[in-house]
Structure formats: structure tokens, C-alpha cells
Design brief:
The chain is an alpha/beta fold and 296 residues long. Helices cover 24% and strands 19% of the residues. The chain has eight helices and 15 strands. It binds arginine. Arginine binds next to loops.
């Protein structure tokens, strides 16, 4: 019995959508600098383990039938594995990233080159933003975080480039420095009005943003502080299958109760860099997606 069933939304309404994503193998991953509260340059990183764990994520996506693309990792850019930060892609247009910290700035052009070679129209950003780290599409609306990384002026740029509604959400806790560690989209293409659509951590947002979230997503899953600290909100959903950090077992239970299929993956080494599953995953949103596919 699920909460959804109680609300008249049977779990079988959850539909996987075909995903097309870009990833970057963590060949050069390490913690060489500290730009978020998770990073500590004194903690040793097991690079081979990081690669093996990332490979499990890649294989999981492959088994789910996702269309997978790879960008070559570059030496000296240890955070390049966090492909989500490389830009925001929609409608065949790639809005490039302009990183806040100098250590990551060369990643911006590297990702823009990849997008160009892939045949996307690239828009060079005027304002600081870290791509899907702070921007995410739900239905036809772009949710956009600010407070730590993206300059709020990038939201206006997004609106102009993609001609979609952009909803600004203000982050207030440095542990949740990107939107994609504070909120995850569960239904990229919401199936019905009672869909949760998203899961989020209430304390990561200011009051006004929280009111916006409550109003837009009245059936959202509210994550616990404990799960959020394990980066549970950095999960990746195709609308039915939700790949989540395997230690976040309470979150997995909540997902099941709402009719999703949680699949645990352990990225403990990448956690040392302050990232997890969603951070490794950049949506390419090919034109014409949004259609449901058979269940995995
Ligand atoms: N060390 C990286 C940084 O602080 C982690 C980025 C994680 N990516 C994400 N999409 N949240 O920038």
C-alpha cells in the first residue's frame, strides 16, 4: 500500500522516460582544493575505487536503457567528473557554465567544446552558473537555485535563452550549495496532478522559496536531514527508476511508498568531493524526449 494509492494515484502510473546523458570518468578525481564543506584536502582519496564506483553508476544507467555519452576527463581538473556542472542543455541549445571558483573555471570551455562537437548550439554565459548543479527541468519549468554558486542574473539569461518559466529558489545552507543536493526531480514529465514531482530538504531553502515549493509541489516527498546529509537529494530519476546513494535507506523507503523503483549505488569516494549521483549526470534532453518507455 502506498501513500499514492491513498491519494488515488496508483504506483503503476510511474512511467520511466528515455534519458540521454553525458558523463565523465573520474580518471583524475582527487580532493586537491576545498570549495565546499565536504572537501578536505587531508583526506586521502582512493582514485581506483572512485573509478570503480562510477563505473557501477554507468553500468546501472546502461541497464536502464539510457543513451550514454562520455566527455574525456582532463588532467588537473579533478572535479570534471561532476558533469552536471558542465552546462544546461535543452531544445538542442547548451547554455555554458561559468564556474564560481577559479579551480574549476577551465571546465566551462571544455564542456562547451564537447557540446559544439555534439552538434548543439552553444550559448556562452555572461553570468556565473554551474549548469545543472543549480538548474533543473521539471515538466516545462526550469527550477533555478542561487545563494552559493549561480549568480541570480544567470536565471534571467536562462529565461531569455530557453523561453521557459524559470523559478528562482534561494539556498541558505552551505552543505546544500547547489540545488541538485537540496532537491531532486522525481517526475521529469509529471504524470498526473498527484505526482510528487520532486523531493527536497525544507531547511535548505529560505522561507519564500519554501512557500513556492509547497505551492507548486503539494505532494512532494520531504526528505529527512539524515538522508539529505548522505546526498539522497542528489538522486537521479527517469520517472520510475530512481538511482540513489545506497546509504540513504529511509529515502529509498519513501520512494517505494510512492511507487518508484529505488536502485542504490555507492559513490562514497566522490562524496569526498561533495558530490554524488546527480552531479555525475548531465541531461542532454534531446528534442522530442518526454515520451514514456517500457518499464525497466
Ligand atoms: N567539488 C565540486 C564543487 O564543489 C562538487 C560539485 C558537485 N556537483 C553538483 N552538481 N552538485 O564544485
Amino acid at each position: 500500500m502506498s501513500c499514492c494509492a491513498r491519494k488515488g494515484c496508483p504506483p503503476q502510473t510511474r512511467q520511466p522516460t528515455k534519458r540521454s546523458i553525458l558523463m565523465c570518468r573520474p580518471t583524475f578525481f582527487t580532493v586537491a582544493y576545498a570549495i565546499n564543506p565536504y572537501m578536505n584536502t587531508d583526506t586521502p582519496v582512493d582514485q581506483a575505487k572512485a573509478v570503480a564506483q562510477w563505473q557501477t553508476l554507468y553500468d546501472t544507467y546502461e541497464q536502464l536503457g539510457f543513451d550514454l555519452h562520455l566527455i574525456d576527463p582532463l588532467p588537473g581538473l579533478p572535479d570534471m567528473v561532476f558533469a552536471a556542472n558542465g552546462g544546461f542543455v535543452l531544445d538542442g541549445i547548451a547554455y555554458g557554465a561559468k564556474f564560481r571558483h577559479p579551480e574549476r573555471q577551465p571546465e566551462g570551455p571544455a564542456y562547451m567544446n564537447w557540446f559544439r562537437n555534439f552538434g548543439l548550439k552553444v550559448v556562452e554565459p555572461a553570468f556565473t552558473n554551474e549548469g545543472m548543479g543549480d538548474f533543473t527541468l521539471v515538466g516545462n519549468v526550469i527550477l533555478a537555485g542561487t545563494g552559493f554558486r549561480a549568480d541570480v542574473r544567470s536565471h534571467e539569461e536562462l529565461r531569455r535563452v530557453f523561453k521557459r518559466e524559470v523559478v528562482t529558489l534561494k539556498l541558505v545552507n552551505p552543505r546544500y550549495y547547489h540545488l541538485d543536493v537540496a532537491l531532486t526531480v522525481l517526475d521529469p514529465v509529471p504524470v498526473d496532478p498527484s505526482s510528487p514531482c520532486v523531493a527536497y530538504l525544507e531547511s535548505a531553502f529560505d522561507e519564500a522559496s519554501l512557500a513556492t515549493l509547497r505551492n507548486r509541489f503539494p505532494n512532494a516527498i520531504i526528505a529527512s536531514e539524515e538522508d539529505a546529509a548522505l546526498l539522497a537529494l542528489n538522486s537521479y530519476s527517469d520517472g520510475y527508476n530512481v538511482v540513489y546513494p545506497s546509504k540513504a535507506t529511509n529515502f529509498a523507503r519513501q520512494l517505494k511508498e510512492h511507487g518508484y523503483n529505488p536502485i542504490g549505488v555507492d559513490l562514497s569516494e566522490l562524496f569526498l568531493g561533495g558530490g554524488s549521483i546527480r552531479c555525475c549526470t548531465l541531461d542532454l534532453h534531446p528534442v522530442g524526449t518526454g515520451t514514456s518507455v517500457a518499464r525497466a
